[in-house]
Write a structure and sequence with these properties.
This protein is α+β, with helices and mostly antiparallel strands. 25% of the residues lie in helices and 34% in strands. The chain is elongated and about 90 Å long. It has 2 helices and 8 strands; from the N terminus they run αββαββββββ. The strands form 2 sheets. A 4-stranded mixed β-sheet has the order 1-5-6-8, with no helix packed on it. Strands 2-7-4-3 form a 4-stranded antiparallel β-sheet, covered by helices on one side. β3 and β4 form a beta hairpin.
């Protein structure tokens, strides 16, 4: 009689462990990837003369060093990336990616140097401050600089 009682306890314990194992596997099902791209974002790269005055002041204070900042105004988000002081001009910046995920906006840019031989030797010691200001609609999400 004692042997049957122990077997029933062991069976119940085994059943409980199996139910817990199944439940834990269900919990480990495909979780939503919050960093997965939802969509590419439409954007505008702003010329210097259309950058809001307050943002221009912030950029001017930071342009000597590399910087990344965001600025919100009138329903728009401005994403600013500066590459610091360069010895010459001729640099350009390519926006490689700008997309939305469930919880953030991801941005990636590339600094492209001047073509060899394209630098005006009379301006060789004229520094430049390559930067890009990207304007998008405000989405209420943080920006991740990749």
């Amino acid at each position: 009689m004692l042997k049957i009682f122990i077997n029933k306890k062991a069976n119940i314990l085994l059943m409980i462990l199996m139910v817990l194992a199944v439940l834990s596997l269900i919990g480990c099902g495909k979780a939503e990837d919050k960093t997965k791209k939802i969509k590419d974002l439409d954007f505008t790269v702003l010329a210097d003369e259309v950058i809001p005055a307050e943002l221009k002041t912030l950029i001017e204070d930071k342009k000597g060093q590399e910087f990344k900042l965001t600025y919100q105004d009138s329903g728009f988000l401005y994403i600013c990336i500066g590459y610091g002081k360069m010895d010459t001009g001729g640099y350009s910046i390519k926006v490689e990616e700008l997309y939305e995920t469930m919880n953030a906006i991801y941005v990636s840019t590339l600094l492209i140097g001047p073509e060899p031989g394209s630098i005006d030797l009379t301006k060789k010691n004229s520094p430049s401050y390559p930067l890009v200001v990207i304007k998008i609609k405000e989405l209420g999400k943080s920006v991740v600089f990749a």
